[in-house]
Amino acid sequence: MAEATDLSGVYRAIRVLGQQLGTQIDEVGASVGVVHHDLALTSDELKRLREEFNEFVMQAEKTANVQQSETRVVALKAEMDRQFGHYAVVRRTSTGILQAFDVGNVSNQVVTQVSEELMIQTPRYWLAPVLVALAAWSRDDQDMAEKSVREAYSRDPSKTSLLFTLVLRRQGRAEAATRWLQHYLTSLDPRALGREFAVVLEAVSYDAFGVHGQQILIHKMHEWAKVLGTGSDSFEHQARNWVGEIGMQREQLVDHEYPQLARLAPEWPTIKRLLEQASALPVTIDKYTEVANHVGMMPASLEDLMDDILDQLVTEYDKDELPLRRDVLYHSSVIEMGGDKVQARKRADQLGVALDASMDLMSMQTQAATNPELIGVSARTQRVCVGACHDAFRVAVGRFCTAYRSRLMDSTTLDFSPTHSQYAETYGFKGCRLDTAMNEQTGIGLLKQTWEDTFHDYIESVSFKDQWYTAPVSIAVVVTVVAFFIAWPAGIIVALAGTLIVAYLAKQKKDQCQAEVDKAEQARDAAMRLSLQMYRDSTAQFVDAMSLYRELDSQEADLLRLIDTWPTRDQQDEQEAI
């Protein structure tokens, strides 16, 4: 009888192997669960971090733009002072000489010396020979006065004419002032009016030139109207400027005011722009209601008014300074818009029209009406010019509203993507697109059904399946066959041990799968509730947004009423003059 084979070592090895495999499978299963959970959390955190980082980068860029523009503004103003600081000296001296003539406490010799020195120091500036002419006039030096007047007129005919108009009117020489006014108007081109023409508008608004001067201006305006023609490009340009003026009044909307709508609606940028543009209407109404209600106090005397106009003319900056002032305006706009260069450029371009060396009559009226401070006129003149721009202003309102209304939508899509929530990312949400126009119960039903399908497929993918036995059983069979070839008792023992190991591992896997299924079942209701709440919130926010839009849009009628009842339109003299 053959000696029995000692298989105790094999039994122990199989038992230890089974225990080790079971423990390792448990650990792997637990690790996989933790990793899956961590990956879901990490993905969500990375998404939020990316959004925060992008926002931070954008804000940092805007902050850097503001800082650079602040530095640039300081440098530009220093450069203007370096290049044109001596112009300021001439301006201050001009004001001082005019005041000295009124008081009579400065000798002709001092005035002559100062004016001739400035003539030498500023060889291109029109105001310098004017001072020499005034000094010669004060000492009755006709030859020197005429030479200086010709020199000043050759440098800048319109400003020189206007200044002598104002000075002579100030001295009570109305006839001579009117002749110089005629020279001034003759020197102008209605398609390229100098910025100083705003001073004339200012004077007309106060009736500073008297009846005869007003008749001259009205006659010249009629001539210019024929040159420009009706229905011309000038009117079209004026209407476009008014569209831009209205657009500049819009307010900025932040996504946080409609968080779920901004998150789910692909058309949110259009909705946001629609609300922002409609918001310009009430702001425009408030701005121009204040202008319409402005009551300018008449000066204590006509001389006081002329002093103000004359001071404004002699202190106005020269066209050589315009390039630097345009740069200052742009960088100031960057600061004003919080570092947004795109919006700053639009704002600077819109406001920069007022800094042009010349503009046509209608553009001058528009700038006086929209940006009076940039061309140096008062609120009274602004009030008159708004009335003069009535037709273009009204056309612009219609165009502005028509433009944003063309993008109006009765409803919007709500895209519940596979990443719309953490649950959606974790359980592989299939995606669902709803519309705010559909019945709420229909939308809820579609959203619930999509979640049911999602969880059905997910549970199916993680449930225990009989196919899992295939690989372990195949391995056990191979090991058993090998053992039978070695020794049949060993084959029996190996078969029994393999069966036990396979059963043990199968139970572990089944328990793990069941845990995943239970976890999914528990999350099902929470996932649905979150998506349904997002759906209800987004539809409610869309209703609120459209309600706000209709409220804003309805104010077009109020704006048109303000334009049609503009106070100066009933004042025939102002209407004809402008």
Concise synopsis of the structure shown:
This protein is mainly α.
Give the oligomeric state.
single chain
Share of helical residues: over 70%
- Averaging pLDDT over every residue, what do you get? 77
Taken in chain order, the helices and strands follow as HHHHHHEHHHHHHHHHEHHHHEHEHHHHH
Give the DSSP E fraction (strand runs of 2 or more residues).
under 5%
Strand order of the largest sheet: 1-2
Continuous helix count: 25
Task: Please provide a written account of the structure.
The strands form 2 sheets. Strands 1-2 form a two-stranded antiparallel ribbon. A two-stranded antiparallel sheet has the order 3-4. The N terminus and C terminus are likely disordered. It has a domain of 144 residues. The longest helix has 96 residues. The protein has 25 helices and 4 strands. 31% of the residues are buried. The chain has 578 residues and is mainly α. Helix 2 packs antiparallel against helix 3 and helix 12 packs parallel to helix 24.
